[in-house]
Write a structure and sequence with these properties.
About 35% of the residues lie in helices and about 30% in strands. It is an alpha+beta fold. It folds into 3 domains: about 1-35 and about 220-320, Immunoglobulin-like; about 35-215, von Willebrand factor, type A domain (Rossmann fold), CATH 3.40.50.410; about 325-420, Four Helix Bundle (Hemerythrin (Met), subunit A), CATH 1.20.120.1690. The strands form 4 sheets. Strands 2, 10, 13, 14, 16, 17 and 18 form a 7-stranded mixed β-sheet that branches. InterPro entries: CLCR (IPR051266), VWA_3_C (IPR041176), VWF_A (IPR002035), vWFA_dom_sf (IPR036465).
Length: about 425
């Protein structure tokens, strides 16, 4: 079953009209046990000319190892794309016969042509629909820039068609691709984007993708937000395990209700930040900001799990209004961490080493304070951390691959650890 809990300061100072809140949504094992339906996994492989050699060899090996991991109750398909796309393996159950045929088909892949990402996604969409699966996960990999024509004319429309049909994890191989192109796809399709600068890392990443995908037991959940007409929902972001802006995918049901797709779920917890623009209130006035609920389908129909109403009161008591929700403060810090990395990398790319060092040093300090080990690991490939507590770092020798890995990892966040926080407060 899902649980949903809200965290925020229920008191606002006079004239304050913005409210920030964090919703923690948790699903446990009983969710995956209540949902039945077919699962399909898709592999969308870039076979453009620039993939020739080690990159394609490792991509083929990783795909074949991934296919071997599948059990007979899982469906799968393989797509190749360059300037256009073709179905390598049609959606089918992962029987021993189908796996053997897939191994042979993948081994025959060669690299040639340009890159049109929309073509690969479009073919994947067709195979997901043909499979009849209720839970669909796609692994999309590329090593180069998308063609300008595809970016301008086709990609946005195809992404829109895929929304809500499957989730997509995107991976850039090598260093000759653009991070924003992969984020454009993964953000809209509620997946992750990352850099695999060394092709030999593809197999391990494939395995991680499959483990996450196969653990999903509920096809789709939705965050339903009801607010009075006088309240505007200005922000909805997934903040853990990765920062995703969900407002572009929000659907207006009526003049008071928004629905935001949350994708498929396993046994896990995710955190979401919401912001509301409220009307101006007088001291003592109270306003309901929202009623939030997680909505999903089980064998008996729609299930709605509500959160306690989020409501605030205006007060002139500074002791109340200046309190900051620990959860809100934590994710404000994680957003600041991401911004510091992005701005630091931008400064580094422009040759402004002094500014880059300051910003990346600040990022190292924030990462250490919040316990974000993943971002710290990536930072250490770009800078030598002299003193994390003081934010003192030294830039390392230029390494495009390390910079890209850091840029793609800047949206990775860490959840607040209440026990760690309590220990710090006790010491103080």
């Amino acid at each position: 079953m899902f649980t949903i809990e809200g965290f925020y300061n229920p008191y606002l100072a006079a004239s304050q009209t913005r409210l920030d809140a964090v919703l923690t949504i948790t699903s446990d094992a009983t969710v995956s046990q209540t949902t039945s339906g077919r699962k399909v996994v898709g592999f969308v492989l870039d076979t453009s000319g620039s993939m020739n050699g080690e990159k394609l060899a490792q991509a083929k090996l990783a795909a074949r190892r991934g296919i071997d991991m599948l059990t007979e109750d899982i469906w799968f398909f393989v797509i190749k794309f360059a300037g256009s796309a073709d179905i390598v393996v049609e959606a089918c159950p992962a029987t021993s016969t189908n796996k053997a045929l897939a191994h042979y088909a993948v081994q025959q892949l060669t690299a040639t042509g340009s890159t049109a990402m929309s073509s690969g996604l479009k073919k994947a969409l067709g195979e997901v629909k043909r499979s009849g699966a209720t839970i669909a996960s796609v692994y999309f990999q590329t090593d180069g820039d998308n063609s300008a024509d595809d970016n301008e004319r086709y990609l946005a429309g195809v992404i829109a068609e895929c929304e809500g049909v499957f989730q997509c994890d995107c991976r850039g191989i090598g260093t000759d691709w653009k991070p924003n192109e992969l984020r454009r796809i993964s953000s809209a399709l509620l997946g992750t984007a990352d850099a695999i600068t060394d092709p030999t890392g593809l197999e391990e990443d494939f395995r991680s993708f499959l483990n996450r995908s196969l653990a999903k037991g509920i096809a789709a959940a939705t965050l339903r937000i009801w607010s009075p007409k006088v309240v505007k929902v200005s922000l909805v972001k997934q903040m853990s395990p990765e920062i995703l802006d969900l407002m572009p995918s929000a659907k207006r049901i009526d003049d008071k209700t928004l629905e935001i797709p949350l994708g498929a779920w396993a046994t896990e917890a995710r955190d979401y930040q919401l912001a509301f623009e409220l009307p101006v209130g007088n001291i003592g006035d109270e306003v309901l900001a929202c009623r939030a609920a997680v909505v999903f389908q089980d064998s008996n129909g729609e299930v709605k799990i509500p959160c306690e109403p989020i409501a605030v009161r205006w007060s002139e008591d500074d002791a109340l209004t200046t309190r900051i929700s620990r959860e809100v403060a934590h994710y404000t810090g994680q957003k600041e961490l991401a911004d510091s990395i992005q701005e630091g990398l931008d400064a580094k790319a422009k040759g402004d080493d002094d500014r880059a060092t300051r910003l990346l040093g600040h990022a190292a300090k924030l990462a250490a304070e919040s316990g974000n080990e993943e971002v710290t690991r990536r930072l250490k490939k770009v800078v030598d951390v002299v003193d994390a507590s003081a934010g003192t770092v030294r830039l390392k020798k230029a390494d495009k691959g390390a910079d890209m890995e850091l840029e793609m990892g800047l949206t990775r966040t860490v959840r607040r650890n209440p026990k760690q926080q309590q220990a710090v407060e006790t010491q103080n």
